[in-house]
Design goal:
Blueprint: H1 2-10, E1 17-20, H2 26-35, E2 41-46, H3 49-58, E3 65-70, H4 76-89, E4 94-99, E5 112-114, E6 117-120, H5 124-151, E7 158-164, H6 177-200, E8 205-211, H7 234-245, E9 255-258
Parallel strand pairs: 1-2, 1-4, 2-3, 4-7, 7-8, 8-9
Antiparallel strand pairs: 5-6
Amino acid sequence: MIFLFVATEMDRWTDRVVLVTEASSEIGQSIVAELSKYPLKIVAVAQEIVLIQKLSNKLQSSLAKIYPVQCDLTRESEIVNLFKWIETTIGQGVSVTINNANTSMKSKILGVRKNHVFVSDGETNDWRYLFDLNVIAVTTCCRESYKSMNKYDIADGHIININSTAGYSMLPFPGEKVYNSSKTALTYLTEGLRHELFYDGSKIKVTSINLGKVNSEAVGSVGENKKSILSMNPERVATMVIVALTQPADIVIGELTVLSVGETIQAYPPPNIIIK
């Protein structure tokens, strides 16, 4: 009965364009694989296109049509051209955007020290990249998605931002705070998007899926010991995307926080860890 309900609710998206950014990541590939169970037109975007081409070939017999597209999301011009490509090639606007762009590299503010002496400064290039991908790229995709939906009279469009509990709490270790602040910025900008859509009289839905620790290459780079922490499989994230997309037309899941059982929203240092 549950599967029948999901399949029926997903019918509204049949033959419509679903954009998935950073589709080459483990979370992105899981989302594309889950969406491919339905007759959708999936635009799978990544800077490294080889992985999504392989995924597309693997899912060739699925119900969906998958369009692998190369795009550097840190370049505004490439994002704008991506939406033009969708319009020109597929001949439709974007009905659903799943903003999965993310990097969680560690980067200290003051720099690296040895024996109480700083041997290198904090890397502004790292900070800039974190904000370019985690904040500016996502916000630009939100803007272009809205323009596409408006142009093609897609009144029931849906924008899903894959965020993190780091946008709602303070991470405990040095080197995590720039990432932390980028996710906090995304939290406020997602609500800002809802605010502007409200003033525009738009019924486009906006959902933020706020993840705890995920067993993937991106999130695993934050934290002292990837193997020692609770983490969920990327497939769980893909399931939550379907949950958001299958709500009734008059309901939107605004915030969906997903944790492993036993995990906390506020991150704490493991016992007996001395923070230097």
